[in-house]
Specification:
Blueprint (H helix, E strand, L loop, with lengths): L3 E4 L4 E4 L5 E5 L11 E4 L8 E12 L2 E12 L11 E5 L7 E2 L7 E5 L4 E3 L8 E2 L5 E9 L2 E13 L17
Parallel strand pairs: 1-6, 7-13
Antiparallel strand pairs: 2-4, 3-5, 5-6, 8-11, 9-12, 10-11, 12-13
């Protein structure tokens, strides 16, 4: 039986052959502890990568044998983290941009590929300069696990919004 790595919430088949009867331990999360072809959906502690050894005991006539399969469960629930929503002021004199930030994953891919000006779609920290408010979606992988998160980039246009009114002239003494 080959060792496997899965994400929290996934199940995996456990297949043993060559015996007449079978028994799996531990039995928690195992579909049928007395089957040579069953499944397991392990539950582990949050934010851990936990290996669990499942032992099958197979019996044939008067003999019994044991084998072990190690199932490693990746339980990092929030590894796809695109960060908090951000914004910037788009001024006519400067190229304004903002840096997005992600962490805790092995690979990153940002969509849409709209005005990513540095770092590229596969960077954990690309710089973006959208012309309008834009939602960027992060697709992150960690081992066999895939996660998604979204960040909003708000763009404020610089439009001379500070206005003190028309100029006023006064005479001396008034």
């Amino acid at each position: 039986i080959a060792d496997k790595t899965i994400c929290q919430g996934d199940s995996v088949n456990l297949i043993a052959t060559g015996a007449s009867t079978y028994g799996w331990t531990p039995g928690n999360g195992v579909g049928d502890i007395y089957s040579g072809n069953t499944w397991v959906k392990p539950v582990t502690t949050l934010n851990t990568t936990t290996p669990i050894n499942y032992i099958v005991t197979g019996t044939k006539t008067y003999c019994s044998d044991k084998d072990t399969v190690k199932i490693t469960v990746d339980n990092y629930k929030n590894f796809a983290n695109a960060g908090v929503d951000v914004g910037f002021c788009k001024t006519p004199a400067a190229t304004a941009n903002v840096q997005l930030g992600a962490s805790f994953a092995n690979t990153y891919f940002w969509t849409p590929n709209y005005n990513i000006i540095a770092g590229g779609q596969s960077s954990p920290v690309p710089k973006v300069a959208p012309d309008v408010d834009t939602f960027y979606v992060l697709r992150a992988t960690r081992g066999v696990c895939v996660g998604y998160d979204t960040v909003k980039v708000k763009v404020d246009d610089y439009k001379n919004f500070a206005n003190a009114g028309a100029d006023t002239f006064i005479c001396m003494g008034n």
